[in-house]
Amino acid sequence: MEDDKPWALVSGAVEHGLYEDLTPIMKQHFQILCYKDFLQNPQLHGPKIQAVLLWDNIPPTDPSTLRSLPSLKVVANGGVGIDHLDVPYINSLGVKVTNTPGVVSDATADMAMGLLLASARKIVQGHQISVDPNTTNHKPQSLMGVEVTGSTMGIIGMGHIGCRIAQRGKGFDMKILYHNRNRRSVEDEQAVGATYCEKMDDLLKESDFVVLAVNLSPETTGLISTRELNLMKPTATLVNISRGRVVDQDALVKALQSETILAAALDVTYPEPLPRDHPLLGLPNVLITPHVGTDTLSTSRKIVQRMVENAVAVLKGQSIPNEVKPK
Ligand SMILES: O=CC(=O)O
C-alpha cells in the first residue's frame, strides 16, 4: 500500500521529469518527495524523510539540510564517486552512506575509450568541418590523427573501471600499463593484459595515452600537475574520466598551451561546467564533455536500481550491498 512506503527525498533531475524511466524504480519502494517541494516547507516535510536518493549531487547533504531530516537513515548515492559527501559527518548523525560501484564501470570505460578515440582521431573537429557551410577544404592536414592501434595506454587507478578500460584497450592491440595504490594479483593482470608500473613516473614517460581512473581523495587531489605533465611525451594525450580535481587544471592549461603534451580529453573538470571564459575552453587541443561517463539509459537504470536496493536494505536492517565506510 502506497502509504506504508517510506519517504525518500529525491533530486532535481527527478523533479524536472528528466528521468521518467527511472522514477518508477524509486516509486516501487518509496514515496518520493522532490527537493523543490521539500524546500517549500522543510519543517513539515523533513521529519518524514528516511532516505535521500542522491542523483547528480542533489539534494544537498550539507549540515543544515541534514539537520532538518531527523528521521533520516540513509544517504544513497547514485554513482560510485562520493567525494561530494562528508561520510564521517553523515555517519555521526547515525545515517549510513551507500554508493553503486560495479554497475557504472562499463559505461564509464566506454566513455574513456570514446574520448580517447575522438581526441586521437579528431572526430569533433572533423564533424565541425563537415557541417560548416563555409568549408572549402574538407580534409585539411589539421585532421591528421594519432594511431590508437598498437599504442601504449597507461591507466592510473586500476579499480573496476580501470580494468574495464584495460580490456577495451586490449581490443585495440594496445600495450597496457597501470599504476595503482596496490598492485593487482597476477591473475587480474593477466585477465586484462596489463603490466604494473610501481612508479607512476615510468607510466607517464612511456604512455601515448594516460587515462585517469582514480577516486578523488586527499591523496589523488592534484595528482597530475606540472611535474607529471612534463614527464609525459609531447605526443601524449591525457584522458580524465575520474574527477576534475585529480588534475591541476592551471598546470594542464599551461601544458596544452606550450604543447608539453599533445592533447587532453576530459569528461570531468572543476568546476562543472567551467565558466564560459575559462582558458581550457579556448584551446584547440582539448575535448570536453559534461561529466556524462555513466549516462546511458541502461546504466542509469542499474544505478537507480542499486541505489534503491541499498536504501531499502538499510531501512529494513538487511545486509547492505554497498555501504561506504569512512577510511
Ligand atoms: O561520476 C560518476 C560516478 O561517480 O559514478
TrEMBL record:
Domain D-isomer specific 2-hydroxyacid dehydrogenase NAD-binding spans what residues? 113-293
One matching Pfam family is: 2-Hacid_dh_C
Q: What is this protein called?
A: Glyoxylate reductase
PROSITE patterns xrefs: D_2_HYDROXYACID_DH_1
Of the GO CC terms on this record, one is: cytosol
Query: Lineage of the source organism?
Result: Eukaryota, Metazoa, Chordata, Craniata, Vertebrata
Molecular function terms in GO for this entry? Answer: glyoxylate reductase (NADPH) activity; hydroxypyruvate reductase [NAD(P)H] activity; NAD binding
Keyword Metal-binding annotated: no
Asked if Hydrolase is a keyword of the record, the answer is: no
The family note in this entry says: Belongs to the D-isomer specific 2-hydroxyacid dehydrogenase family.
Keywords of the record: Oxidoreductase
The chain positions of domain D-isomer specific 2-hydroxyacid dehydrogenase catalytic read 25-325
